[in-house]
Amino acid sequence: MTIKTDTVVIGAGPVGLFSIFELGILGLNAHVIDNLDKIGGQCIELYPDKPIYDIPGIPNCTGEVLIKNLLDQIEPFKAQFHLNQRVNEIKKNNKLWQVITSDNQIFETPNIIIAGGVGSFEPRKLDLKDIEKFQGKGFYYSVKDKSKFKDQTIAIFGGGDSALDWTLELSNTAKKVYLIHRRDDFKGAPHTLNKIKEISKSGKIEIKTFYQLKGVKGDKKLESVDIQKNTDPIENLKIDSAIAFFGLKMELGPIANWGLNLDNKCIVVNTKNFQTNEEGIFAVGDICTYPGKLKLILSGFHEGALAARECFSRARPNENFVFQYTTSSTQIHKRLGVK
User: Fold this and answer.
1) Strand, helix or coil at 5?
2) Of the candidates 155, 191, 158, which has an alpha carbon nearest to the alpha carbon of residue 175?
3) Do the bridges between strand 139-140 and strand 153-157 make them parallel or antiparallel, or are there none, so unpaired?
């Protein structure tokens, strides 16, 4: 079924989220597509606990707090998020754009705002014999449906927030979870690690440090993994599934094939409305470039605000755009649910 919307926003990082706010106060709805399994982009994946000091009016906040505040800000507009999928293809359909994702979801819209940071995040994949044979058949780089891991014995590899968060989450329904890391220090949130250590006392979670993945085995699906601690003999673990969280790499991905003008892997835009060379496609945030561009979150907020106004003209061609301040507009107050 084709989903019709005023705007498709590609990227659920801070600039994408603020673009939803700017669209919302103009009365435009949005569907948001992101390749990650959670909202927040780089702020959540790369520095959730790291302070940010250059958000206007906020002396300092973490990436996690910034995303939470942005989600609170856009809550009145009920934007719909489509996570764990990326935009593979866009097609022109008269004056509209057709957007097709990796999950074969189809959107029809007059406006596309690309707020994808420096491209889509892709999991770092392993160069290991037979690993591709088991991808999606017991070996995974992300969790799309946690219910499939119910009552399983799972090996989770990694030491960051994703590995810790999913170890904790899946331990609620899994038979057993092995948390396997090549070091004994974890980069994830300390409070999550403390909870994992507490659960490990019951045997539901087993933490194995200084181990690395050496091999995968099975017939039609993954049945076991070979792991090795330092130079000790290889150990074979019988498991139902393995999930590897070895970080992310940023790739321009399918965007490179959309016919947009590119400069050093960034999308060239004008500074009037941050439209690309294709009418109705906009780029904001780190992925766009123009003379004097600064790769700052606050710059992306400005870019999203101007792009949203052009989106209004395209989505509501028979209505005149009237600029209004949020401090005094009763119409905006109504959209925000302010009484």
Assistant:
1) coil
2) 155
3) unpaired
Residue 301's identity, in one-letter code, is F
Q: 41, 49, 50: which is closest to 16 by C-alpha? A: 41
pLDDT in tens, 239-297: 999 999 987 777 777 888 899 999 988 999 999 999 999 999 999 999 999 999 999 99
The residue type of 144 is: K
Strands 30-33 and 7-10: parallel
Q: Position 203: which residue type?
A: G
The beta-strand segments (E) located in 165-221 are 176-181, 205-209, 211-218
> 139 burial class (0-12, 13-18, 19+ CB within 10 angstroms)?
buried
| Cα 142 to Cα 11: distance, rounded to the nearest angstrom | 17
Query: Tokens at residue 298, please?
Result: 């606050």
Would the CA dihedral through 192, 163, 247, 142 be positive or negative? negative
Please tell me the pTM assigned to this model. 0.72
Q: Which residue has the tokens 């599934």?
A: 241
For 290, the token pair is 């123009």
Phi and psi at residue 213, to the nearest 5°: -75, 125
Determine contact, residues 230/210, Cβ cutoff 8 Å.
yes
* Helix 63-74 and helix 14-25, axial crossing angle in degrees, nearest 10: 20
In DSSP terms, 31 is beta-bridged to 8, 80
Per-position DSSP letters for 97-144, written without gaps between them: EEEEETT--EEEESEEEE--TTSEEEE-----TTTGGGBTTTEESS-S
Letter string b/e over residues 115-127, b meaning 16 or more CB atoms within 10 A of that residue's CB: bbbebbbebeebe
